[in-house]
Structure formats: structure tokens, C-alpha cells
Amino acid sequence: xxxxxxxxxxxxxxxALALLVFSxxxxxxxxxxxxxxxxxxxxxxxxxxxxxxxxxxxxxxxRDKATSAVSESSSKxxxxxSMMNIDLNDVNQSGNQMTTEKGPQQWVKNAEGTWEPKDxxxxxxxxxxxxxxxxxxxxxxxxxxxxxxGANTTLSSIAYKPAESGTELRQAxxxxxxxxxxxxxxxxxxxxxxxxxxLEIKENETVYKTxxxxxxxxxxxxxxxxxxxxxxxxxxxxxxxxYSLMD
Length: 247
Description:
Elements: H1 2-28, E1 36-46, E2 49-60, H2 63-83, E3 91-93, E4 97-109, E5 115-132, H3 138-149, E6 153-161, H4 168-190, E7 194-203, E8 207-211, E9 213-214, H5 225-228, E10 232-246
Antiparallel strand pairs: 1-10, 2-5, 2-6, 3-5, 4-5, 6-9, 7-10, 8-10
Helix pairs in contact: 2-3
């Protein structure tokens, strides 16, 4: 009987020791680490519309003469725009605006036929703004309008913008994320894995580049090449994305 009790005691101790060793191994077993990949992505949104702003201006001692010259040039410009198949809904005019200013005194014949000194000039201006949804027409339209308007007409600015103005950054971010996803899929596939879930997205520097042309007229009014090609606008979003991987 004593031998049986002693044998049972040894069996219990051996079992407890084995359980302790097993528990110790289970607790100390390191967790399997998540495999992951981190990539960068960039998205760029470029302008696809241009806005040309022209000023038609004339100065004269007589209000009617100042006004008629501007109206005549404006009419010729609108006819030219129409013939170039530009939607007139994309053309805005400020209408003739009148101001006065002092200038060099000159002797002017009045309505009675007598000469009198004058130094009060009437200035008439009209602004025509054209939005081109086909950016490739910018140069041709600009040159045609300057030719039609004559010496009274100047190109005061060219502005470039994306068609969906105000959403440039959102578009650039979407493109950046897609670029990162494509890169991760390529690299994971090359190593025999697949991209699983997004673990982290970090947005880096966002770059805005705008080079609008303002108040610049070329020496040759018939060739806007140098001006048109230097104007552009772009928004670049940069992101870093970490994905988990699976077999």
C-alpha cells in the first residue's frame, strides 16, 4: 500500500512538472510578427483650362469718342470669338467703365469751332474674360483677339486651372494613394506575396506650383508663344502608405 502511495505521489509530481514546463513554453513563445511593406506614392493634377483676360482701353478729351473706340474694338473681338466656335457662355464682359484723369494740356476745338485748352481726359475701359475648356487653343485665341481688338487691346493675364476648381488637392491625393497601391502590388507580387490591408497612411509635403502671366505683353503681339508656354499650374500630393502582406 505504501509503495502504491509513493508511486502515485511520484506520478503527480512528474505530471505537475510537465505542465509547468509546457505552460512556460507557451507563455514565452514569441508572437508571429505581421509582415508589412511601406511605399511612397505621388499624384499630380495639371491644369486643363485657361482663362484669358483682355483689357480694351481708350482715352480722349471727348467722352463719346473714348466710348465709341472701345465699343468698336469689343464688337470686333466678340465676332472673332464667335467665329472660333467658343461658347459665348464662357465669355464675360465687364461693360464700358468710365473714369477721368488729368493729362498734358492740349488745345482742342470745341463744338462752336473755337480752340480751348483741355487737360481732363475721359478713359473708357472694357474687360473681356474668356474661359477655354480646350487648353490647346490658348495661343491661337489670344493672338486672334489681340489682332481683332487692335492697338486698344492688351492681354492683361492668363490663368490656368483644373476643370474642377477647388478639388485639385483631393484629386491629387486620390492619385497618390492609387500610385502607392500599384507600387505595393508590384513589389509584393515580385516576392510571392499579396497586399492585404492598409496599416498606416502618412501625408507628406503637398506642392502647389502656379505660374500665371499677368500684365505682360510681348514685343510681337502676333506671337504669344513665349507667354503661353510659361504659364501652368499643378498640385502634387505625396503620401507614404504601409500595408500588411499575406501569402
